[in-house]
Each structure stands twice: as structure tokens, then as C-alpha cells.
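Researcher: Let's run the pair from yesterday's discussion. Sequence first, then C-alpha cells, for each.
Model: Starting with the first of the pair.
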Amino acid sequence: MRFVLDNSVVMRWLFQDGTPEAMDYARHILDLLTKEDGVALTPCIWALEVGNVIARAESRGLLQEARSAEFLGILNDMAIDTDVRSTAQALGDTLQLARRYKLSTYDAAYLELALREGLPLATNDEALRKALAVAGGRLA
């Protein structure tokens, strides 16, 4: 199964925190991704978001660099592809979606990619889930 992967799900894998529902959903998405036909697609900002959360957590003492490196190694082995066309959409469709649904442009990038590719979106972000439903997309 192909789907768009939001950083909110990935961070549940790393930190193992959140509501029971968020954790169950994150595990479900991990199961989808680790199946033979599982492929996640991310906008070009995804790696920067992952890196930002990790750097901030390390600077606050919430995460050790060794654990970060281990997690990044695991991510690198997963079938996660980056959509290079998302940059071209940033000041067009992505910005319009951010305005329409009152999202950050970062969150709108995931929505834009899911809508453009006709793929379900894996997210734990409530505002993004609501925007996805209104826009006619589907949740992974």
C-alpha cells in the first residue's frame, strides 16, 4: 500500500508517547509500511522536520544522540520516498491549502501531496485530519 506519511506518526515511533489511540494508529501505520508492498511518500520538508524534532529533543536532554542515530538508521532502511515536486507546489497549491484550512504550510504540504497523488494520508495531527476530510481525502 502506498500512502503519504506525516511526521506526527513517525515521532510516535521514536518517542513512544501520546494517547493510546495515537500510539495504536502509529503502530498500524508502521505495520502497513513494513509489509512487502508498503511504501510511504513524503514531501521534501519531511527530513527537515524529522531532524528538527530530533535536534530539539537532544538539546533538551530528552533524547540521546546514540538513540537518534539508531532510529535514523531504521528510518533509512524503510521504504520512504521523497516527492521532489512538492517544492514546486509550495507557493501555489500548498499555500492555498494552508490558507483555506488554516494549516501551517508544513502541514499543508502533506495534504497537498496526498490530494495530488490520490493517496491516503497517515497523520496523528487533528487539524490535518479535519482538513483532509473536508478536502475529500482519506486517512491511511
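Model: Moving on to the second of the pair.
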Amino acid sequence: MAIKSFKLFWVTHKWTGIISAVLFIVIACTGFMLLIKKRSDWIQPPTQTGQPGAVTEFIPLAEAIDAALAQKHDDFKSINDIDRIDVRPDDRVYKVLSGHNYAEIQVCAITGQVLSTAWRPSDLFEDIHDGSFVGEWMHDWIMPLVPPALLFLVFSGIWLWIEPIVRRRRRRARWAARAALENNS
């Protein structure tokens, strides 16, 4: 019985590892890039600083959207191209983010002036990291299997390491008991 369970764990551990290895590598590499994104301007463009002013002086979002669309950027042709707008009150900046090609336009929240136009690889890394880049099916159905697979690999790996040690100790104990019986006879 012990050999059969060991063999089952070994085979399942091996194939789980082989199948999920690519996902683990992709998640680890993109996760690392996301961890260092604030330290690297090429991963995430630095947040610009707008003109001094209070939050009460911020231009309406509609004006920030108009400023971004006025740039005639290929990824900002209409309001439908805008994925979201991040507001950075301390920096007095609106970050207008495109739903296409990971572009951003930073607009001064006080003057409405465009401060920068850049590509955001950090959003691409995030989409690869969570599976959205491949498709929603990957994000919704495959990626949720990764944590249980990792936990299975950890626990089955521990079992595969401990089980032979336990088996050897039991065998030695049986030999010692047998030898003691033979010596007593």
C-alpha cells in the first residue's frame, strides 16, 4: 500500500509540476516586474507633478478627457478608448489610461495641460500575470488552478521526501525487533 501511494504521489507530483511549470515561470517573472515597477521608469512611467493648487481647483474630469483626446493619439480616439482615469491628488495629476496598447496620458489637474504621453508595460505585465492577456477564460478558469497546484506540489514534495525516510525507519525497527526475537530464542 505504501509503495502504491508513493508511486501515485510521485507520478501526480511530476505531471502537475511539468504542466504548471510554464505558468509558474510566467507568474514569477511578471510578478517580479510588477514588484519593481515603481523603481523602473520603463516599466511604469513616473507620475508627473502638476501645477500647485488645491483639490478644489481641479479641472472637471470632462476637461481632462478632452485634453487627452485632443492629442490625436491612436489609442485615444474617443471616450470609448479610455479604460480608466487614475487621480493622483498629491501630484495634481489625472492619469488617463487607454483600453488599447497600454498607453497613458497624464494631464495636469489644475491647468488641463498634457504633462506626458507614454506606454505602460506594467499594465501589460499585469494582464500576463493574471492570464487576462490570453483571454478571460484563462483568467477565470485556468489561473485559479495555479494556487492549489502550487500547494499540492509543496505538500506532495514534502511527502515524497519524508515517506522514504519513514519507510526506512520502520524497516530498521522491524529488523531490530526480528533480530531481538532471534537473540532471545
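Researcher: Give me one sentence on the second I can quote.
Model: The chain has two domains: 1-44+121-173, 45-119.
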